[in-house]
Task: inverse folding
């Protein structure tokens, strides 16, 4: 593609249809288009409605609203993660076409239709306190165009609940497991299923959980194959990664 | 399937074709088959030739040879990772049908044909010293039945080499990035591609690399979406996870 | 037992007393009953009144009340740990039959009689600031049906106070030692007694206590035999483990 | 007892049968006997044959032999842990009445009969590389006078093997679980059983296992109740703690 | 002394002046008096007015007041460290004879005269933010009966200020150095002086100071001899240790 | 210079123009002048207007105002970093000639003209949340007399934005890169430019960023040459270091 | 420059002097030249003889020799750091024109003249055991074309030695300070000098030096301005960074 | 003293007995003598025979011998710590007048008589494996001129042995406690004695002892007052600090 465009410009120069200065101006930016914007373009054409993402943590309400406004001017859908109720109230008041998923702390602004859902992602969660992270993963995956099935409160301390759901979980293309404390859930799930498991350690716990470090190390050291890990409490990252995986196979369904 | 088999046994009992004791003997193991062996069965039928895995680190040469012999009696293929030259020599001498990938430290014993290769996995590697881990990932993925393309020596200190290969890498269904020291490669790759990236930190480095901790943290904290991480030096884990992902889409190719 | 039940079903099928479909329905859940609920059943029959446990930290007042209500509908006793005064007020107001141990932060809801107390557990505590953790251990152990004797303010900086109580402590079946700062108490106690010591590090301290890490490491590295350790501030875990130990011998008393 | 002895001395003084100086000499050491040796005495009388323990790591072969010789002069049995083959060869050559458990790295010297075995301790072990630690725990427990049953190679990646043995394991008075890497085994075992679980993290693993730290944290943060933890690779400590617990109930069997 | 008292009791028994039961009662507590209270007695006689210490952190205002009241009933002086303004207000209101050193966060209650001051302790402090810790050390040392000279704001970034005071500092019997951030002050002071240096790391700093860890490690690794270190922010510990050292030589002055 | 001054004094003594006592008084302070104040003098003469610096964190509003007042009495310019709005309000009210850079948290008090700007320093910043640190670096460098060009929002997740600005950045004498999370920006910048890069990790991030530790390690382990690192969030340090570097070459422009 | 070259090609196309295909071939690589090789080109022209760098650690002798041979085919000078004696012997034997700096572990291969030396870099080193790192920094800086003056054995424990050299050190454009253990040297040097200080922590030390972590933290937390830090033992990085700084001002001399 | 010497020189100049150039030469080094060498001088005069110290770790045999030779040329006594048998053999062969304390790893070279011993330092040691560190402390203290009494094998697991020696230990002016593993000894000793305790953590232990970190933290967090701590395994530092303390009071004896 780039080669074709390059040849076209050169032929124009050869034919005197394009001045050297105009060609120079065009060629000067070639590497950058080639590199960055092309990717964005592709996105826009291939998967209509895929939202832009704003990571709200560390931003003021004003900053979030301003960025959201700028993006919606171009009719982009938006997914704002780690958003507070305040941010949601302001975005909904000033932009509209938006809803706030309180537990997941995600604002979805959708002036355009969201992408159609395909395939299936399972979100498996150990405890009640881990739910905000699990919900962030689930909402992110759904908003990006994936069917999501949730399996909550299936921690390893009562393993029969997990085993009971084993076959349902195994039908997903990607499995997100969310757990704090000792985080053993990911190993048990990956030992039972033959699908890629995205493990999300949470900061739930106390004492020697060291704000999620314990669960993180557990998941990284899992003796079961087929696990990879995202940052502590990174529900967004797990949802996004699972979305990429699910879309590889999603067209089959 | 299990339900069908269960019904079959029960019909046999009903019809007096199966004695209660025989049925009892069969049913006694049901839960475990249902849970564990069923999964193995499925493997065996769906993907002929998929090898069993032996993790050799911490085992003696004798133990590795003994396990390998036992498995090959059932004509299983075997993949022995973290294997020393000594282990390889002994396994090849006593079992045959085997080859040793020295850089990757992997022995592949294949009394039966390996599974056919499908799809494409890219293995992107930062530096020469990271190659053993990258090769482990590549050999594991190939042996499990995946086409693998390698992009070596493309560290961020000379980013043009990576950019040059950008479009080739982007054609893979899953991208494994292997990097030690500061491990920035994974972020840059994920920022450029729209495919799931499995990041492998390596223990390459010194001083404040803390045996791979620095690269591990870098990858976990990546601001680019689409990355998940495996343990330090865990080429096997990355290869296996990429294999699961690639096979989701592999049938399309 | 399970085998007997299984034979009974099969005989029923053989005798046409049970249809294949009904047998199928019964057998489908066998593994899970076998695994999980059986254990709960056993509890309920062997030790009447043993409470269910709610870990309140990270839950809202509403969630705690809702869970407590659901459990008391089945006339279960409840022990809610890490409960705030707010939670206690709401639970007492809406359920009744409850009391709040403020220092221990434990709510006990007991629509049914609690289990009878047996044996003896000693709770040995170093300093005033460690008392909430010691009290959590003591209340948990008492509520689960154990006699508890408390030995408070016996830190190693004034070792004569501990030595004075030596023979009383030694009469317990299990000894819980609770200490923050340098946590040396556990080693000294285990050096003097010939009973299992459950050591609980607390987050009491400052500076290089690193929120309990120092006490935790001290206890894990104890050169005195007979110590095992629970998480920092985990009074509940120590009380529960001591309860299991004390009940092994409890019937003798 | 001590009070009786004290009264006896005082009566002797009163009756002029004991001089003040002789009484003084006797009383001078009272506190220390009262404190330390009394305990040892009690051991010797109550449980004949219980061995003294030598921790060999960090000692020279000469030191180990010298300590062993000195102890056997009083016909004590000895258990020498973390002993090398060299140490064993020398001890056997110079003292005799000894055997070396190679995998467990334990020398047992027994000029007198070992204590009779009672009760039951289960040793549950995740992987082949964890066996030396599991064996240390098992040999220590057996030598201290406990029946031990071993359940090896039951890691969580193939959870059906553990479930298959569930009822056998549950019959023990104390359960030792030994696991490296992510150490999830302890949580799963404690979730299934209603007996005290002593968890032993091992240094087996690589990368982010940080020489056993990962397994240690997993076990400390277990969400299943009834677990307490010993130091990394501390098979001796687990065996000793389980022995204390098992002997509480052992007399019943 | 104890031997004398013991002989006295025995002679009483011999002479029938003391009954065996009375002697028994007296002797029963001997070991503990011998061990603990004897030490306290000695204190009380040798150094009149030496205060008891209350560590207020982690205690409620009520607890601090209660302990202070109990101690002053016996006319003990009291030093309450890490005390808040609230605690001070209440103690002063309810007990009197007290003053609050606000910067040092120390309450001194002195119903009796404080011990006379001897010798000299130098308190050397790096920065303004370290002053509360330096003041705690100084007030503690003064209240325990030591002359204290303060050398504040002499950090290594402007080393001439320290060098200017070198000879004054060197006249002290013990030198307390207080520094946060990189904590290099202790090394420089110990390199210049030939007196014992007690180094106090403070939690002053940000980022990679990790709440005082950086200064702590600096001081522990000092290449200058003659330094020993107390916990982060432990002004009390430094003041107390310097007091013990100064009193060894104090009588000479 | 010092030697000249010393000779001058000695000649005065020789010529009886200076008494021995007066010479003594002069010489007594020589080492300290030689060491410390000389440096300050040099500053004052060579670079008129260079401000004194107050690090406000950990100081009270009163302390900051008092120090600022004292310094401005000598007509010094002042740069107060980590200043709160409160501090700024009070300083401006009581001293005047001051302005507050809110985002950078820096107060500049300038009774005298600031030093003239020379050369060029580039401040390259990854994300919006890193801006306060980047602004601190920029304001500090500008106030010390350096031209500063800012390149904000050029994180590695969208690398084309950085590449687009490559040639502008490369014209600076020193490049400050500010990044939190995984901090990969510094490596990419140093790989592209041939100028000294001062890397500033920020505490921006969550989970395994461990308050900036991840970015710090990334930058320390960079495989690109030409990077050195300052403390987490230390915008001041980076601005000052870049200022020293820029002034080495600044005279050329 | 690149723009000029681009115009030249386009003019050639316009004038038919260059075919479209030939132009295409030339332009295809433009972005990468523009990005990466251009930088290398510039080097080659501006500073003749500047060597390529090989980081030998983690490479085999064969790999180092192979890379060195390939580079010298183009008459590049080479600097191979962290090289063993073995590597040096082989490189010297097979390539020649090389010398090995044993203490610094650096091989310099110079088929062409090295760049001329300019300016001055000071290398200040605390202890004998730190010398290999200091020498690596010095050799690297010299080989890159900088005058280097060494100030060794000037640790803070004997601060007069450092003060004695103060004025000589202050004449450098950049100061490299190398120190292990507590690493306080960097703070003292930066407090005395007004030049950029590049601090290199070394892994020299034991116990709580944690392989250089202590010195690293000390340097990062320095309260003296003008310090930036490289990785533990990274003499190369310090030498390179100082070289970049020194060359900014080098032309003045 | 310095002032007197300065006056003397000035009077010489005034009286023309000293030329300005000669005076200049003399005065040039004044500050450094004043600062550093003066201190050394004082040592030499006040305490004849006090040895210079060489820290051998990280030095080659050749370097140690060379330094030792140079120092003995001036008839200095030498104490070489962390010395290997090889170093000792070479030093004894080439210098003579030396002996090697093998367990302590200290060479003492004494061409002149060592300083007379005064006072008393107690060295209290927990376990056999800690002896090298305890011996280093003891030999260092003895060689510096202190009476040392050793109390070995008095760990807290058998606390009666420590209590038995309590009164002997309490007679020392300074108490060095050496312990690895959990390091609880220091707290118990300081709780019993009223003398300054220098605590030395050792690297003895395994697993979560983290090479001495556990014992270090225990000692830093001790709840008993009167403890300060030196680096892990730093027997030298403890011996030196105790020597400084003992000499404060030593003259009294």
Result:
């Amino acid at each position: 593609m780039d080669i074709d465009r390059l040849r076209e410009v050169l032929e124009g120069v050869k034919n005197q249809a394009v001045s050297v200065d105009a060609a120079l101006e065009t060629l000067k930016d070639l590497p950058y288009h080639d590199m960055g914007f092309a990717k964005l373009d592709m996105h826009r054409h291939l998967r209509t409605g895929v939202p832009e993402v704003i990571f709200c943590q560390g931003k003021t309400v004003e900053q979030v609203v301003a960025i959201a406004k700028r993006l919606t001017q171009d009719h982009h859908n938006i997914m704002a993660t780690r958003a507070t109720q305040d941010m949601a109230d302001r975005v909904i008041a000033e932009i509209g076409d938006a809803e706030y998923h309180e537990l997941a702390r995600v604002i979805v602004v959708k002036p355009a239709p969201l992408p159609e859902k395909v395939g299936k992602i399972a979100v498996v969660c150990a405890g009640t306190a881990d739910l905000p992270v699990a919900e962030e993963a689930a909402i992110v995956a759904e908003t990006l165009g994936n069917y999501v099935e949730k399996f909550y409160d299936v921690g390893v301390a009562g393993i029969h609940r997990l085993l009971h759901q084993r076959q349902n979980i195994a039908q997903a293309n990607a499995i997100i497991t969310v757990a704090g404390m000792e985080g053993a859930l990911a190993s048990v799930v990956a030992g039972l299923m033959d699908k890629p498991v995205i493990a999300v350690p949470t900061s739930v716990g106390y004492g020697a959980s060291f704000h999620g470090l314990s669960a993180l190390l557990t998941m990284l050291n899992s003796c079961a194959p087929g696990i990879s890990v995202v940052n502590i409490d990174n529900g967004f990252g797990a949802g996004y990664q699972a979305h990429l995986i699910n879309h590889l196979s999603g067209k089959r369904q």
Summary: Residues 29-47 of chain B have pLDDT under 50 and may be disordered. Residues 32-109 of chain B form one domain. The beta strands of chain B are 52-55, 78-81, 98-101, 106-109, 118-125, 146-151, 174-179, 197-201, 227-229.
